[in-house]
Amino acid sequence: MSYLHKVRIRTVGTRREMQALGIQRIAIVGGGISGLSAAHHLMEQAPGCQMTLFESGSRLGGVISTVHRDGFQIEQSADNFITTSPWGLDLCEKLGLTRDLVQTNADYRRTFVVRNGRLHRLPDGFMMMAPSRFWPLALTPILSPFGKLRAALEYFIPPRRDSSDESMAHFVRRRLGREAFDRLVEPLVGAVYAADMEKLSVDATLSRFRDMERQHGSLIRAMRHQMKSRPVEEAESGARYSMFVSLIGGLSTLVDAIALRLPENSIRLNTRVERIERAGNIWRLITSATETVGKSAPVCPVEFDAVIVAAPAHVATRLLASVDAPLSFELGQIDYSGTAIVSLAYDVQDIGHPLDGMGVVVPAIENSPILACSFSSRKYPHRSPAGKTLLRVFVGGARHPELAELSAAELLPLVLKQLRPLLNICGEPCFCDVAHWPRTMPQYHLGHKDRIARIDARVAELPGLKLAGSAFRGVGLPDCIHSGQQAAEQVLADWGR
Ligand SMILES: Cc1cc2nc3c(=O)[nH]c(=O)nc-3n(C[C@H](O)[C@H](O)[C@H](O)COP(=O)(O)OP(=O)(O)OC[C@H]3O[C@@H](n4cnc5c(N)ncnc54)[C@H](O)[C@@H]3O)c2cc1C
What is the CATH number that goes with domain 126-236? Predict the structure, then answer.
């Protein structure tokens, strides 16, 4: 890979030498997009600082991973990002990637939902958990007449006065009724966050819907108001697909572009940070090499003036155990779910369904092992060669954690058995690719925002320590990019730059 030439152990000078030269030494733990964006920001804002990024894996990018096979482009996890938050687009611009951005295919910006084993179009204009059109909701076969009536009554239901946090399930049932929750919202939101909606915090996850309720009295009223200034596309439904983009070369292009801009010798792959210690203003990292097959070889402690921890919270809790017990405790309380993604390449003629959408979501009440299936090469046509199609099936999450751990050999028959009747598939896949993502999706459970406030308060007491990553203020790529940039900014602010 393009950044491998940078991977060499570098010698860190003594603190006195560094101080004499006015150089600050910064460590970043974790080479996912959060750690990388922190590193990139530091290099932009303070090119003189000595930065070292430690990554336990053999490649950069963390959850982001694009592979190419037989003319297919397979995103093994994240496959696009939202543009309503500016940080993803801004970073692409800084990296000269703006011309590589691609939008979702405008012909297919709709979602299907499974009901009783069959695919139905999500009502046009139904966006995540709010209907914006009357007739598609009135005519959908997904809800019973009672379910439709109850959803329409949302218009008249007064907003909740209590300002305390609420679970996503409670919020949606209260506003739209049980059936709309079970059949429409749970599969959509549950698939995006791989989450249990009974535990997911509405304030921490999709607070804009809570704001809509507060400002307009109801979600339907709020959607009608929004439609005046920003109409939803005629047949759009599900996620706001028109607001998502990807990169023509795959999302790993973003990772590679950052890595290329980081200084020589600043990246240490295959190096796991085992522990972080604090001695006054000095931060000591105890690392081990992970490239030695079977066992970890010990490496000397390395000293820094500041450290940005951009590893998952379940790792950070361990690393910081001896630094600050309450902080470590709070980090350890952030739950994670895992998923497996099965990518299936097919000849187009082997699939009976026209695949005239972005994909299908499966409600929990359907009792299927599949969470969702994205029609990946419909969403972004460059992902498959002519005459072929690429599907991505999501398994596991908080709904079926045990399935995310199955081997490829165990998963494939399970997935194919579900998918064949759903999409009317008659042939065998040209090939399959299975990617496992254990404990990668933080779950913003009830009270998450309060927990983050407590974490912030502890971190404020520890000069030189900053946290970044998906565990805190958003799991989407733009939020992770922002969290890395903010952590870097705070380090520089501490030093008065
Ligand atoms: C399956 C899946 C699909 C997703 N799809 C989308 C999507 O389409 N759009 C979107 O916007 N977001 C999506 N997300 C969310 C988004 O991809 C992630 O939230 C984001 O990539 C997380 O980045 P991160 O850097 O915070 O964490 P990670 O990517 O997890 O990076 C953390 C890094 O730290 C390293 N590390 C861990 N422990 C140590 C240690 N002790 N020492 C050194 N290094 C260590 C890890 O190896 C890893 O590389 C998806 C997430 C998942 C799991």
Answer: 1.10.3110.10
* pTM of the model as a whole: 0.93
Mutation test of ligand 1: which of 36, 63, 341, 371 has the most ligand atoms closer than 8 Å to its C-beta?
63
Tell me, using a 6 A CB cutoff, whether residue 440 lines ligand 1.
yes
CATH topology for 4-62+251-333+449-494 is: FAD/NAD(P)-binding domain (3.50.50)
CATH topology of domain 80-107+336-442: Polyamine Oxidase; Chain A, domain 2 (3.90.660)
| Same fold for the pair 4-62+251-333+449-494 and 80-107+336-442 | no
Q: Which pLDDT score is estimated for 204? A: 95
What is the 3 state secondary structure string of the chain?
CCCHHHCCCCCCCCHHHHHHCCCCEEEEECCEHHHHHHHHHHHHHCCCCEEEEECCCCCCECCCCEEEECCEEEECCCCCEECCCCHHHHHHHHCCCHHHEEECCHHHCCEEEEECCEEEECCCCEECCEECCHHHHHHCCCCCHHHHHHHHHHHHCCCCCCCCCCEHHHHHHHHHCHHHHHHHHHHHHHHHHCCCCCCEEHHHHCHHHHHHHHHHCCHHHHHHHHHHHCCCCCCCCECCHHHEEEECCCCHHHHHHHHHHCCCCCEECCEEEEEEEEECCEEEEEEEECCCCCCCEECCCEEECEEEECCCHHHHHHHCCCCCHHHHHHHHCCCEEEEEEEEEEEEHHHECCCCCCCEEECCHHHCCCEEEEECHHHHCHHHCCCCEEEEEEEEECCCCCCHHHCCHHHHHHHHHHHHHHHHCECCCCCEEEEEEEEEEEECCECCHHHHHHHHHHHHHCCCCEEECCCCCCCCCHHHHHHHHHHHHHHHHHHCCC
* Residue 385 CB less than 6 A away from ligand 1: no
Q: What is the pLDDT of residue 225?
A: 86
Please give the pLDDT value at position 1: 40
The Å distance, Cα 110 to ligand 1 centre, comes to: 27
What is each CA distance from 414 to 61, 140, 390, 418, 452, in whole angstroms?
29, 30, 18, 7, 38
Which residues of the chain fall below pLDDT 70? 1-23, 230-238, 291-299, 497
pLDDT at 23: 64
Among protein residues, the one whose CA lies closest to atom 34 of ligand 1: 30
